[in-house]
Structure formats: C-alpha cells, structure tokens
Amino acid sequence: MTLLDSAIHAITSWDPRNGAEEKAKADFVSALDHGEAVLSRHPLPTHLTASAFVLDRGREFVLLVFHRKGRFWVQPGGHLEDDDASVESAALREAREETGLAGDLLHGARVVDLDHHALAGAFGHCRSHLDIGVVVFTDGTPAPTVSDESEAVRWFPVNALPDGVVNGFRERLDGVLARLG
Q1: 69: which strand partners?
Q2: Residue 105 and residue 37: Cα distance in Å, rounded?
Q3: Fewer CB within 10 Å, N- or C-terminus of the chain?
Q4: Which residues contact 143 (CB under 8 A, 6 or more apart)?
C-alpha cells in the first residue's frame, strides 16, 4: 500500500458523526482529486498532514507540544514525508520527533479525526492543512524531550488544558475521546 493509498483509506473509511465532520470529510475527499500532489507541501497551498493525539492508557492525560512558529499548545504533527509508509506511521514519526518518546512506548495507532484548518502567514506557502488525527497510547506518562520544533513538551490532564492551546483543539480532543468510547 502506498502513502496515497493509506490516506485514501483513512479518509474514505472515516465515519462522520455530525455535520461539521461531514463537511471536513468532503473537503478531504475533494482534495484527493489532486492525487500525489496533496501529499506534499508544494505545489498546493492546502495539503494533507498527520498528527498524533498521544494519550495515556487511562485517557486522563494528553501530551502537547508548544509550537515554535504557531505560538500555541497542540498535539505533535506535521507534513507527510516520502518515506512514510502510512498515515499512521507519519503520525508516529511526528510524535517521536516532537516529543522524544521512543517508538516502543507508543501503541495502538488508529485514525480518529479529520480536521481542515487555516494557517497564519508564519507558515509560509502553506495556507491550510487537511490534518488526519491518529490516536496513540502510552503506559503511564513517560518523560518527553523538547525538540527543535517546540519550546516545551508536557502532559496535561484532558480536563485541564493549558492557556494558549490552539484554537479548536478542545473540540478535536473531545471528538477523539468520544470516538474512543
């Protein structure tokens, strides 16, 4: 399976639960008309990304990074790369890169969220991301490490998110938690 095949499968098999999710899925399906180009940050200003909602097994804590460019707290994530085998592996790679957690600490990766969001001018050519959210679990809350892309990495209680969390994150996290039951 190619990365594009993985993205197509993640998007087309995702089951929207409300009107906003139906609109998001329609945006993603429409973007697939661009074929392989939707996987790369160039030439299109709107493209697919993958992010990881890193939760402890008890679903009491979420791991967030303070994004250097955006100046907000958010789940780890970013652009797809040519050597990513799947959307899930891209999200896992981003989680490892941005949090310093070893891959063997991250379990149960699966797609749980589709989110189309606009980006500020600080993101250059990129005008919006079609982000495929993947949930991954850890046993406990292992100590993270700050990366070059972040100023801080911390676990937060899911019911006490920090000030400065990216706009719309609370709703995305609530949707992820609802999908997990």
Answers
A1: none
A2: 32
A3: C
A4: none
pLDDT tens digit sequence for 101-151: 999 999 999 999 999 976 665 555 566 789 999 999 999 999 999 987 779
Q: Can you tell me whether residue 42 is helix, strand or coil?
A: coil
Cα angle value 25/16/138 (rounded, 5°) = 100
On average, the pLDDT of the chain sits at 92
Cβ-Cβ contacts under 8 Å for 18 (sequence gap 6 or more): none
Q: Tell me: cis bond preceding 43? Omega within 30 of 0 counts.
A: yes
* pLDDT reported for residue 112: 97
C-alpha pair distances (Å), 20 with each of 24, 98, 154, 172, 175: 6, 29, 29, 11, 11
CA distance 64 to 55: 10
3-state secondary structure of 35: helix
Query: What is the block-wise mean pLDDT of the chain (181 residues), using blocks of 10 residues?
Result: 95 94 93 89 82 98 91 94 96 96 96 83 66 97 89 97 96 96 88
C-beta neighbour count of 49 within 10 angstroms: 23
Tokens of 95: 């989680």
pTM metric for this prediction: 0.93
Q: How far apart are the first and last CA of the chain?
A: 29
The pair of three-digit structure tokens given for residue 97, joined into one six-digit string: 């890169």
